[in-house]
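INTERNAL TRANSFER SHEET
From: sequence group
To: structure group
Subject: Lipoprotein

Please process the attached sequence and return the structure record in the designated field. Keep the field labels unchanged so the import script can parse them.
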Amino acid sequence: MNKIINTILAAAIISVSCFTSASCSKSGTEVREPAYGGILDPEDWGDGGDTGAAPERGKVLTVDPDRSQLAAGAELSRDGTTVTLPHTETSVTIFIDCDDELEVLPSDNPLVSVSPAPTGEINMFTVRKVLVAPGENPGPAAVKFHRKGMEHTYPDDIITLDLKPNPSTVSGEPVFRQRRVRI
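Return from structure group:
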C-alpha cells in the first residue's frame, strides 16, 4: 500500500515540476530554470456560478375527474387544480394526474386532512373536511405535494381546496340562567 502511495506522490511531484520547469524527463524530476518565472500560485475557489438548471417536472398537478370520486356538493374546476367543497362534513377521493409518485405534505389547516387512499393506488388521496362552523368563512386551503425522487418540494405542486362558508348564522348574545338546585 505504501509503495502505491509513494508512486502516486512521485507522479504528482513530476507533474508539478514539469508544469513549472522548462524541461522534464520521465525517469525523474530534472528541474532546470522555471519556465514561468517560478511560483505556482493557485487562486481561491469560486462559487461556481448559477447553472440555471431545474428538474423536469412535467405539467402542473391536476385532479383527474374520471378517476376521482367527488361527494355531493363537491365540484372540480375546469383546469382541474381546484376542488370546491361544501360547508358540510365531506369526504372525497381524488386522483392526481402526475407522471411522478406524490407524497402529501402535512397541512396546518384544522378543517382538512389528506392521506393516501386505502386502495394503495399511487397518487390517489382521501380528503376529509369537517363541518364549517356557522358564520365561519374558511376560504381556500392549499394541499401541498412532494414528488418522490426529487430533493426539493416546489411551491406550485399544490391542489387548492375551496372551502365554502356555512350559510347558517348566529346572532344576538347568549344568555345563561342559573337555576337554584335544592339538595
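Handover comment: Residues 17-25 have pLDDT under 50 and may be disordered. DSSP finds one helix and nine strands in the chain.
Transfer complete.
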